[in-house]
Amino acid sequence: MKNAFLRRHTAEDIDGQIAKILRGLGNPEPPLRIEDVRELLRLDTKFYSSTDSGIFRETISRMFVGAKQVINRPSLLGDALTKFQLKALWLPDHKRILIDNSVPKIKHRWIEAHEVTHSVLPWHRDCLFGDTEQTLTPSCHEKLEDEANFGAGRLLFLGERFLREGADFAIGLDAVKTLSKLYGNTLTSTLWRFVECMGDERPLVGLVSIHPHRPVQSAVAVPVCRYFIRSRAFDEQFPHVNENDVFEIAKLYCGRQSGGPLGEAKISLTNVRAESCAFKFETFYNGYDALTLGAYS
Predict the structure, then answer these.
(1) Cis peptide preceding 31, ω within 30 of 0
(2) pLDDT digit string (tens) for 155-204?
(3) What sign results for the dihedral spanned by CA atoms 169, 171, 172, 173?
């Protein structure tokens, strides 16, 4: 999955909605208490089972989506969940966030912030989980999800505050780890926000992948590269570099350690003007994912 670059006016509209929430909370100190956000917006959180069809039917039989009673259209919500493999959703009529109870608790914070963004963007209300051809197309769904991810990052990292505080750190994974603890967010979400926030003018690239030299022990297929995060400057100057390229770079210098720093190296990348540009790459393994950061040096 790649990060998306929103149109400027869309990003500004989302920033405006997130700023309203933060003002309503009195511009809090990090880490943000997501329960305070729910209380401010009068939202609640419930859980459902996507693996037990009986419990699932019982849950959706009491729910509404938009102005439509799901009990009269029992396949509406189920179709949306199945089609897009959703692990959470926002139900506007009930002001409720539903989370699949199979989702690990560590991911709930991001999921709730994501669904909160859906709830405060007025143009999302009429699009989410409708049953028209347009609203159920993958392209429409992807656009809404990109916008909600953008808003979740702005909310959990307290808007522009992260940019100001992040600027005090040297670019590197040490900064990501420190900011992760300060803001109470995962290393993955912090790496994502760090690359996007600190890379408006400086080419930065991030990758969340499997360990470069340790096979994955799993009964189900696991993607080699989960997230590929590029700054605007990186995307403009190195559009030909993809997630597989970065993973192969990490394999060059990473060791086989079972946790902690895996290694670092200076690597040259060629930009769109055929110029050779030196990057510092480093990788850290948290026991589940390998996080790689490449910064133009």
Answers:
(1) yes
(2) 999 999 999 999 999 999 999 999 999 999 999 999 999 999 998 889 99
(3) positive
